């Protein structure tokens, strides 16, 4: 492989070990070393594909201290691949710090396409529109969960959660969004993969005996949302540089709200 780039972001399987591209295998074989969350986890994948490249640990607890090492290695002409334990790095996995520093220091970075739990999940559940919000791992406290989901009543909202917490999380969401529908997937691409949709009660009833596996969940947008998050949307648009009249037009068009009322609300904020 020609070394056009020096630093590669390489997705790895989210479950089924066969879900890796030929290009990813070739890249992992060709680079000088592989930066990974857990060398023991990555080594199993490398052994399966007879990849002999040296591994070095890179995780959220040592991100900062590894930056200088990576930069020095790249300056000598070395090539590096970044992987996470499963899926695509930087999607709820380490990588943000090093990518920021690489770009700042003028190094080339390329990301290979590949496995990601979010996109795999979204392609397997019914949706009436393409728009969605991905909020990463759902917050841990009840108040934080309530606040997070209040801000996304008008858009499908996707998040990760642990099997130990997910049913409690759904019950918390039900308190503030009683009519909300859910889609939930566990063990994507694995032997016991399961994708279900339904109300909060239907989901919790189905898994009343417990649930196992990696979880991806989506709360469907309310069909006739009470726009309780207008202030939130206004602030977001203001942060992007939109003026009051522009914001009023955008929100009134998207959510069938009164343009003059929104404009006045902005002036009063």
Order of helices and strands: EHEHEHEHEHEHEHEEHEHHH
With strands numbered from the N-terminus, the spatial order across the biggest sheet is: 3-2-4-1-5
DSSP summary: helix tally: 11
Helix content: 25-40%
Instruction: Name the average pLDDT.
Output: 90
Task: Categorize the overall geometry.
Answer: globular
Structural class: alpha/beta
Give a short summary of the structure.
Helix 3 (63-75) packs parallel to helix 4, helix 6 crosses helix 7 (166-176) and helix 10 (244-255) packs across helix 11 (259-268).
Report on the structure:
The protein has 269 residues and is of the alpha/beta class. It is 39% helix and 17% strand. The chain contains eleven helices and ten strands. It has helices spanning 22-30, 39-48, 63-75, 96-104, 117-122, 142-150, 166-176, 200-206, 230-239, 244-255, 259-268, and strands at residues 7-9, 33-36, 54-57, 80-82, 109-111, 132-137, 156-161, 181-186, 194-199, 215-219. It has a five-stranded parallel beta sheet with strand order 3-2-4-1-5, sandwiched between helices. It has a five-stranded mixed beta sheet with strand order 6-7-10-8-9. Strand 8 (181-186) and strand 9 form a beta hairpin. Helix 3 packs parallel to helix 4 (96-104) and helix 7 runs antiparallel to helix 8 (200-206). The chain is globular, with a radius of gyration of 22 Å. The protein starts with 6 loop residues before the first strand and ends with a helix. 30% of the residues are buried.
């Amino acid at each position: 492989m020609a070394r056009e780039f020096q630093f590669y972001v390489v997705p790895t399987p989210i479950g089924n070990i066969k879900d890796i591209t030929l290009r990813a295998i070739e890249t992992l074989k060709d680079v000088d070393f592989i930066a990974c969350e857990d060398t023991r986890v990555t080594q199993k994948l490398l052994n399966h594909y007879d990849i002999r490249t040296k591994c070095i640990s890179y995780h959220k607890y040592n991100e900062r201290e590894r930056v200088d090492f990576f930069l020095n290695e790249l300056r000598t002409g070395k090539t590096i691949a970044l992987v996470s334990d499963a899926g695509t790095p930087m999607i709820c996995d380490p990588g943000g710090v090093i990518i920021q520093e690489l770009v700042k220091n003028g190094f080339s970075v390329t990301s290979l396409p590949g496995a990601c739990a979010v996109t795999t999940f979204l392609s397997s559940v019914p949706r009436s529109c393409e728009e969605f919000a991905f909020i990463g791992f759902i917050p841990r406290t009840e108040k934080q969960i309530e606040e997070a989901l209040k801000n996304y009543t008008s858009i499908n909202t996707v998040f990760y959660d642990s099997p130990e917490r997910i049913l409690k999380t759904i019950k918390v969401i039900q308190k503030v969004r009683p009519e909300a529908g859910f889609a939930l997937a566990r063990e994507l691409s694995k032997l016991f993969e399961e994708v279900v949709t339904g109300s909060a009660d239907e989901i919790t009833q189905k898994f009343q005996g417990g649930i196992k596996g990696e979880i991806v969940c989506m709360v469907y947008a309310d069909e006739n949302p009470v726009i309780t998050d207008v202030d939130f949307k206004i602030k977001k648009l203001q942060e992007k540089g939109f003026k009051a009249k522009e914001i009023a037009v955008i929100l009134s068009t998207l959510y069938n709200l009164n343009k003059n009322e929104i404009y006045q609300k902005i002036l009063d904020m």
